Amino acid sequence: MACYRPIDTADKIRAPTLVIDAEQEELFDRMQNGHLLSEIVSKNAPTRYITFPCTHYEIYDRYYRDASNLARDWFITYLKKP
């Protein structure tokens, strides 16, 4: 697990990508994860990086509705039938 670095292949992502992060993320450095991912992917696909003023797990309860609505809107925009 210590050698697992999915960010190393982020440049291969071509799908629209929404990244939702916690501003006070305490489990890892969000600037080297979610933010960096969005910067890399944005060169190849529509990308949006959103943060909420919270810690890691608060995204799943305190900001669940807001984050879910963002995700829903993202899917509606990018999963339309041609």
Please render the helix and strand layout as text.
Elements: E1 17-22, H1 34-41, E2 47-52, H2 64-78
Parallel strand pairs: 1-2
What low-confidence regions span 5 or more consecutive residues with pLDDT below 50? Answer: none
How large a portion of the residues is in β-strands, by DSSP E? 5-15%
> How many domain units?
1
Share of helix among residues?
25-40%
Structural category is alpha+beta
Order of helices and strands: EHEH
Instruction: Report the biggest beta sheet as strand number plus sense, adding barrel if it closes.
Output: 2 strands, parallel
Tally the beta strands: 2
- Distance linking N and C termini: 40 Å
- In order across it, which strands form the biggest sheet? 1-2
- Helical element count? 2
Give the overall average pLDDT. Answer: 93
Q: Which word captures the global form?
A: flat
Radius of gyration: 14 Å
Written overview of the protein:
The radius of gyration is 14 Å and the shape is flat. It has a two-stranded parallel ribbon with strand order 1-2. The chain has 82 residues and is of the alpha+beta class. The termini are far apart. The protein has one domain. Helices cover 28% and strands 15% of the residues. The protein is built from two helices and two strands, in the order E-H-E-H. The model has no long low-confidence stretch (mean pLDDT 93). The longest helix has 15 residues.
